[in-house]
Amino acid sequence: MPWGNLGDDSRGECGVPVWARFNGTGSANPNQEQQGPLSATSNSVYWYSFNEGPVHVIMLSSEHDWRQTSRQYAWLEADLEAVNRSQTPWVVLGTHRMMYETETACDSDYALSLAFRSEVEPLLNRSKVNLMVVGHQHSYERSCPAFQGECVEDGVSGTVHMVVGSAGAHVQSGTFNRNNTKFSLKHANTYGYIRLDVNVSRMKIEFVRTNAGGGVKDGQVWDSVELLPWV
Amino acid sequence: MVLLFVWTAVALLSLVITTSADHAAHLRNPILGQLSALKPGQTQLPFNVIRPSILSGPLSGTSKLTTEGDPSVGLRITYAGIESPTSSDLITLACDLYDANPNDFFDAISATGESSGSFTLPPLPDLRCNYLVRYIRSTSDAATPPTTTTTTTTTTTTQSSIALLLAETKVKHSFGLLPTQTRLSFTTKQNEMMSIWVVGFNDVPSRVEWGLTQNALNFSAPSTSLTYKASDLCNAPANETGLQKFISPGYIHRAIMAPLPFSTTIWYRVGSDDHGWSKVRSFTSRRSVAITAESSSLKFLMYADQALPVPFFGPAWKMTKQVVRDIEAGYDAFLLHPGDLGYAMGSAYIWDVWGTLVEPITSRVPYMVTVGNHEYDHVGSKSRTQWCTTGWMAPKWHVTSAMGKFRR
Predict the structure, then answer these.
(1) Which of A9, A25, A181 to mutate to test the interface with B (most CBs of B within 10 A)?
(2) Chain B residues close to A63, C-beta within 8 Å
(3) Which ipTM was obtained for this model?
(4) pTM of this prediction?
(5) Which of 3.40.50.1980, 2.10.260.10, 3.10.270.10, 2.60.40.380 is the CATH number of B180-376?
(6) Superfamily of chain region B9-170
(7) Residue A194 pLDDT level (bands cut at 50, 70, 90)
(8) CB contact under 8 A, A13 and B234
(9) C-alpha to C-alpha distance for A102 and A118, rounded to whole angstroms
């Protein structure tokens, strides 16, 4: 079964240019699983992981099948199982689409986020993934440490979800008021990016606005949070 | 998220035109003129240049176009002797990659309505072909609503008026030789760094050179390269030829620097003796797996959905400068960009525009990406206007199972 059938937003590119311009190896056929240079079991630019310093980074493709029956899920499960938390106390996951969002911009995106949560979140929680950062929604949003749509009681044993789809594509104008919005601690329709400063005992995340507003000038930090290890 | 598609030309326009201060007041520039009117959250530029169906030649009269300067720095375009100029005349930017069909161009700006003038473009990417600049005379008022029918063959749009090519000039520059869009990427090994770059010609051996100081690049490694063809892509418009569709990506080279010492400033350049070299740049090599003071802390950056359409004047461009500032302040371990990179969406040259735009970042830190909908999603053809309606974005592999129960 071909992957990548969520729509035609690549207008026919189907991953080939991005594959070729970044870590492309092997076949140019985007529907064939490929061994990328990043690990023997990863899939080219689509999903892979690496360790750097105290962080284990995982990049997933939200555009491929991520259901529990999928190859990507099997890879993720094996990858998370192999993480040595004494070597890398932090696990950061990046993918394109949201698992947590409250902006009212697009109902189908919201529905997909709930489906994503249903299929993949139990594994993330079991594996103590500290942070999941996505884009797709052109805005900024940060959750509490959360599980199953709720902030976790101890404030630690949940994944913090951030939307940072704010790097230049025109920001959105929705409001952040879905049914359950308690997990959304901070959000804005603004441009910006995050910078992360990590050591073994804490992960400091700052959202830098690249347009003035919300009481800060452009280039200044508009939101910040410190995560504690999830042990 | 979907960037509502206006004209492919939008992105290009934004890249093409800036003006010297003295000229700015005269140039009716649809992007610059309307950026200030763009509200936060607005997803569609109020872009309304009519794209005429251009009759090719004969080049007539006294109209002349000349260019000077380095396109990668700022090409200056001068026009003179324009007879009966109007502000609905267009100046278009194309290149000689395909047949010199004047209807096929990257972008256009409106002329000033004056018989002579000049302006300077912002840095143009190396598209591995010679830029063509054309002065186009619209024979109907471009400000009027588009005609619904025309007897002229139109290759671009149903919004057609008829126009004449008054003047054209080819930009003389050695395109395609120097390395462009330099990128760094991790590999599986902690003591390696991959360099990636794009050139137009693949007739000479290329390599990466590196060292511990800027003036002593004592190590080198040869590159391998790949390219892709229109037929490698899945469907239209990406796999159709045209300046706003498929253009050759050139050759994408990769060379691995190894072995590298850990947590060390490495200087490097890429290219070839025959065709030239990139700038010498630096990055910080990876941390040791062994837990040390240096390897137990980390600073990195992350963002998604970068996009055109206004790279040189809009948020993305400003962001590049601010990200470089943070890289220089130590957030230099890597940058993660999970999807929606430059929004080329079938317009191959946008990959080059974006790659050039972010090179100050990608050449300084490993730039690790995954795909977003705008790089990967492909199935059939769907209306651009229905991107958010029920079911459209629902994955087919999911829609038959539990998707329905998640709807509010």
Answers:
(1) A9
(2) 339, 371-373, 375-377
(3) 0.94
(4) 0.84
(5) 2.60.40.380
(6) Immunoglobulins (2.60.40.10)
(7) very high
(8) yes
(9) 16
